[in-house]
Here is the input.
Amino acid sequence: MRGHPNILLVIIICFSFLTSKSTCFNTKKIPRKSQESKVKGMFVFGSSLVDNGNNNFLNKSRAKADYLPYGVDFGFGPSGRFTNGRNVIDLIGEKLKLPSYIPPFNDPLTKGSRIVNGVNYASGGSGILDETGSIAGEVISLSQQIRNLENVTMPELREQLGSNDSSTMLSNYLFVIGTGGNDFLFNYFLRPTSKDTASLQPFISNLITTLTLQLKKLYSLGARKFVLIGVNPNGCTPIVKAMDPSQKGCIERVNQATLLFNYQLRKLADSIKLNDMPESYLVFFDSFKTLMDIINTPPSKGFEDTSSPCCEVQDKAEGGILCKKGGSICANRNSHVFFDGLHPTEAVNIKLAKKAHDSSKSHVYPMNIKQLVQL
Here is the structure.
């Protein structure tokens, strides 16, 4: 990734496939309709798809998006969001009519009244497992993200809200978790054993077991309303498809692993509520299905290019995923599915947010976010 060539990353990923494979961390007010939101705010956990600037403050991280062309269509410029404009969290927040963008935890300005509508803890390159993302130099694991909430944010939030009752204090916040993809791309598929399909199910079971403990921890802190974002069809991303150019279309081996994980994640939304987290609500958003609907029938969804990155990406020696600093970009970002080698454009994020907020059970189970916030 940027500034730190990582030839090993490319070699390992290629081998795995072939052997089977800043300154704008904004908390400013943004325009909203006058209607009040049914939720106080959002606490966000996960990876680059929902990160809005936390990695900008990690000196050793190579997973950063704090430079152009990232943010070219964002009102405050490059902010650490891994897309050309708003990410899915920004857009869900707008649909919920929250008064401002959710601030990143690592920003020194994220304190006092700025945390009242929530905090974003997500870190690009991170995963469910602590070891995931080490190849990116420095990331904040999901477990550490939760500790940041518990040890830093909650004491200050109690002071701001004048409450010592965590369950009451946090019950009107959404807890959004968008993670898991990196556990496959930058962990499982980098292992020599990944070519052995018998190793996949134990790996997924470990992910679900670990995530279950992390969700229970959030529940013990007072979280009651959860949104679990499924893993995208990463087998269709430009970086993954480039690893095996002999194959046409998406790399099914990667997508099948994702489908198995998403299936277990959807089941978890039911089982953990019934058995371990009473009086909680868990929603599973099938982002895989939403993206595949676009990729399979792009014209009907308003897209043209479903396979190439909109921006000029870094050389393979640098990872081949992120945009090249100051590199060229496509003219019509709204017609592209992918902005860089892995992350979707704002146009796709708009579709994702809309589906998560008000779609039917075919995309959001057992209810959508609009229904969840009424509870």
